[in-house]
Design a protein that fits this description.
Length: 209
């Protein structure tokens, strides 16, 4: 149903974590996938790395998933400060809307408790209310989650998601980047729809034209 998909990632790696398998599948099916990272989290980069390392890592990760460099948009909002910049973020998303004109947007879910993710979800609904919006799952930020949409994945899709996330050397100690966890969640969601693997989403807005 969708040919032009936009992934909104508050920070570099959020899009891959929440929808990396779907990105790989959509790209393999010939759909255009654009990826927006609003922050490269320079203030949180470990001291042993250069401040812009996450920009380099997201470029590598999205390339693994098949996203064109022309469809990767990076912005410089400060991590954990999104609530103070809501209007600027909305203005940025409106510019992205006019540039990309997506028919499906993947954004953080309504159940995500991270302050930056909450802002992106709220402002994405304002900016993209004329198209379908799905909220992706990040269990470490969620108290609960509404699994109201599923996308089945192949072994190749899951493998590309894992390979993409392995590009984030700066984040390697985070438990949710562990291959066992990624496969486990994909297996759980796949089992719910009688498939081997899947990613689950919250339906925030569904528009059929």
């Amino acid at each position: 149903m969708f040919d032009n998909i936009l992934v909104l990632s508050p920070h570099t790696d959020d899009g891959e974590l929440g929808a990396g398998g779907c990105i790989a599948r959509f790209v393999s099916e010939g759909k255009r996938v654009s990826y927006v990272a609003l922050s490269a989290c320079e203030q949180s980069v470990p001291d042993e790395f250069p401040p812009d390392i996450l920009k380099q890592e997201v470029k590598k990760a999205t390339k693994v998933l098949g996203i064109s460099s022309d469809d990767l948009l990076l912005y410089g909002f400060e991590v954990r400060m999104f609530p103070q910049h809501r209007q600027e973020i909305l203005d940025t998303l409106l510019e992205v809307r006019d540039r990309v004109n997506p028919d499906l947007v993947l954004t953080p879910s309504s159940f995500d408790t991270h302050q930056d993710h909450e802002v992106v979800r709220a402002e994405s609904l304002r900016a993209f209310k004329m198209c379908s919006i799905l909220g992706y799952e990040q269990p470490w930020n969620n108290i609960t989650f509404n699994t109201s949409a599923f996308v089945s994945l192949s072994e190749g899709d899951v493998r590309k998601k894992i390979d993409a996330l392995e590009c984030y050397v700066t984040q390697k100690d985070r438990k949710y980047l562990n291959e066992e966890f990624i496969r486990g969640l994909a297996t759980t969601r796949g089992t719910q729809i009688n498939e081997k693997y899947a990613e689950a989403f919250e339906v925030i807005r569904w528009v059929i034209k």
